[in-house]
């Protein structure tokens, strides 16, 4: 399991790589990577935690990029549908994808203290959930795996 989110890393490179991956994908697919979509992705990459649509909208409003909820929601819909962001169902919030160029089933580790989110790759169809589904003849098409706990940084601080 490759987990990204709690370890120290080159944050500038992380942000640059995330935006570059989105730019390249959009150019290849003929999609528009609008300034609002770019900025929402940058915000998610900058914060490294789950953000609600209204938190993102507040930042966009402060920067003069729009104050209407559809701006944030349309950008988030574009980013999630193209694999550059994920929705954290439990928090009704969004995070930037840590593996944007790979098809994967993410699992999220959510720190209940600081709110940081680490993304791990998971294969729920191959684990116990997959076994249970197979036993009843169910085919898993999408699974959301979210675990809440305390990250290493908050454990050290305690």
Quick structural gist:
The protein is α+β, with helices and mostly antiparallel strands. The chain contains 6 helices and 6 strands. The strands form 2 sheets. It has a 4-stranded mixed sheet, with no helix packed on it.
Let me know the average pLDDT.
85
Task: Identify the strand order in the major beta sheet.
Answer: 1-5-4-6
Hey, roughly how much beta strand do the residues contain? 15-25%
Q: How many strands?
A: 6
Q: In the CATH hierarchy, what is the class?
A: Mainly Alpha
Description of the molecule:
This protein has 158 residues and is of the alpha+beta class. It has a single domain, classed as Orthogonal Bundle (Arc Repressor Mutant, subunit A). Helices cover 44% and strands 18% of the residues. It has a four-stranded mixed beta sheet, with no helix packed on it. It has a two-stranded antiparallel sheet with strand order 2-3. A hairpin with a 5-residue loop joins strand 4 and strand 5. Helix 2 packs across helix 4 and helix 3 packs across helix 4. The protein starts with a strand and ends with a helix.
């Amino acid at each position: 399991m490759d987990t990204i989110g709690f370890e120290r890393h080159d944050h500038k490179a992380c942000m640059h790589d995330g935006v570059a991956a989105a730019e390249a994908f959009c150019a290849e697919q003929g999609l528009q990577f609008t300034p609002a979509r770019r900025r929402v992705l940058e915000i998610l990459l900058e914060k490294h935690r789950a953000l609600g649509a209204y938190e993102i909208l507040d930042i966009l409003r402060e920067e003069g990029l729009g104050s209407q909820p559809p701006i944030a929601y349309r950008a988030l819909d574009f980013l999630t549908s193209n694999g550059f962001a994920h929705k954290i169902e439990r928090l009704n919030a969004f995070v930037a994808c840590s593996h944007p160029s790979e098809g994967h089933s993410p699992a999220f580790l959510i720190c209940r203290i600081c709110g940081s989110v680490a993304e791990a790759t998971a294969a729920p169809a191959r684990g116990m959930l997959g076994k249970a589904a197979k036993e009843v003849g169910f085919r898993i098409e999408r699974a959301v795996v979210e675990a809440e706990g305390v990250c290493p940084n908050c454990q050290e601080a305690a």
